[in-house]
Design brief:
Blueprint: H1 2-6, E1 10-13, E2 34-38, H2 39-42, H3 46-59, H4 88-96, E3 102-104, H5 110-113, H6 123-148, H7 154-179, E4 190-193, E5 208-210, H8 211-225, H9 241-255, H10 259-270, H11 274-277, E6 295-299, H12 315-318, E7 328-330, H13 332-335, E8 347-348, E9 361-362, E10 373-377, H14 378-391, H15 395-409, H16 421-435, H17 441-449, H18 478-483
Antiparallel strand pairs: 1-2, 3-7, 4-5, 6-10, 8-9
Helix pairs in contact: 3-6, 3-7, 6-7, 7-8, 8-9, 9-10, 10-14, 14-15, 14-16
Keywords: Cell outer membrane, Membrane, Signal
Main location: membrane
Organism: Flavivirga jejuensis
Length: 493
Amino acid sequence: MKIYNKLNITFLLVLVVTFLSGCSKDFLDEPKNTAGISGDIVFTDRDIVQAFITGIYARYKGQWDDDLTNDNLPEGEGNDSNADTGGLYAMYFARTVKGNDIIQAPSWFLFDYSHENRGTTFRRTSFTWTFNYEIINYANVLIKGVRESPDLNEATKKEFTAVAKAIRAFHYFQLALEFAPNYNNDRTVTRIPIYTEPATVESIGNPPSPLSDVYNLILTDLKEAIPDLPEDRLGKSYINKAVANGFLARVLLVTQDDWELASSAAKAAYGSNASTAVVSSNWDAGFNDLTDQDWLWGHFQDGSNESNFFWMAPHVFMDHLSISFLATYVNTNFRDTFSDTDVRKLFQDIYDSETPYREFVTTKFAFSFESDVPLMRKSEMVLIDAEAQYNLGREPEARDLLFALQSERDPNATLSSNSGSALMDEILLERRKELYGELGVEWFDAKRMRTPINRDDVHRVVVNVPADSELFYLNIPQSEIDANPNMDESLNQ
C-alpha cells in the first residue's frame, strides 16, 4: 500500500508538547522533535517508549497534506494542509455534517455535507485511509519493538503492548466504519487489508480481508488489551482501561451480538454509577475543558504552540460568537426536540436571517486557542448501557439509565413510560441530543441501525441517503489501488 511504502522503522519520534495529570493541566518542559531515532534506542527505555506513544497521540491532531501525493516536493513545498483533513477530529466532524441535525454553510466540509466526497482521488478518501493506516503501522511498530526488546521488563511490555493493541483496534474500527458497508449487511465483503506487522520500504500491500476478519481482529485486540491496561494515565489524551472499554462498547453497538458484554464494557468505562457519571459542568461553559469529570478521552490544546488549534473542529466551526469560521448551523426541527428547561438547549437566532438554514446556531461549543476536544464521555457510555439493557429485554433498567441522564440535564424530566420500539427511538434521540457535534453520532447510528438519513427542507443541501446506501462508506483511494498489486478497481464498482 502507498503509505506502507513510504514508512520504515527509522522513527520520527514526535514528543508531545503537553502531558496531562489527574484533573488539572500540568506541564512538563517541552521536548524537541527528534528525527531518525532508531528502534534500538526507542525500545531500550520505558520513558522513551512512552514518548513514542505520546507522539502517536500527537498525530491525532497533526496536519495532513491536501492531496497526500506531493511528498517528494522540496522541503517546505509539500504540505497543503486543510482544515478538513486535520486528524481524528476532522474525521469525526465529516461524519457530523452528513446528518440531518447539523447544517454546514458553503465552507470547509461542504462536500462531506453534500455527500459528494467519496471519490477515489478526493482528499477525504485519501486522508481517512492514510491517517488510519499510518497510526496502525505505528501500533505495529510499537508491538514488535516492545516484544523484542531485551531491556524492558515484562510488566512494561504487557502494558505497552496493550496500549498498542487498543490503538490498532480503534483505527481498524474507523476503517471498517469509513470504507465498508455495515457489518450486518455483508460480513464477507472484502475491502480492508489487515496488517499486524510493521511496514518496511520493501513491503507489498496485503489483499483485503473479509469484514468479519477485520472485526475479529478488533475484538481480539480489545479483549486482550483491556486486562493489561492501567487505570492511571498521564492525562485524558491517553488511552487507559476505561477508554478501551469504551472502544469495545462502541464496537459492540455495531456487531449487535453480545449485549451483555456491551453493558459490562460501558459500565467499566463510566464507573457503574450512572447518576454520578453524567454530571457535567461543561454545558453552557463552552464544552472545551477535558478536566470535566464526564470526559473520558479528549484532545488537549495548550493554547500557544499547537500546530492547528485554529482549525480544531467542532469549536471553530460551530462557535458564531467569536473569531471563527462561522460555518455550522442547527436544524430548527432538531432544536425543537429539546425542552425549554433542558440545559442543552443552547440555540440562538443571532442573524435574524430569512434563509431557513441560518436560523439557529448553537453555543454548545466556545472556541478559543485552548479549546479541548471531546472524543469520549461517560454520558455516551450510560446511553450505550441503556441500549444494551433494552436489547437484553430489561426495559425498566433501560428507562432508569435513560432517566439518570435526562434528569441531570433537565430538572423537569420525567421517567420514560415508553416501551418497545418507542423506547429504543427515545434512546437514539437522547444520543443525538447529548452528543451532537462531537463524533457524528447521527451518521453512526443510521449506518449501524440500517436506517436512512432524510433531510428536512430547511437544509442548504437536501439529500436523502437510503438505508444501506453506498453513501455510508467511501471508495478505496486510487493511490492505494495503484500502489497495492493486491487491490483493484473492481472494489469501487
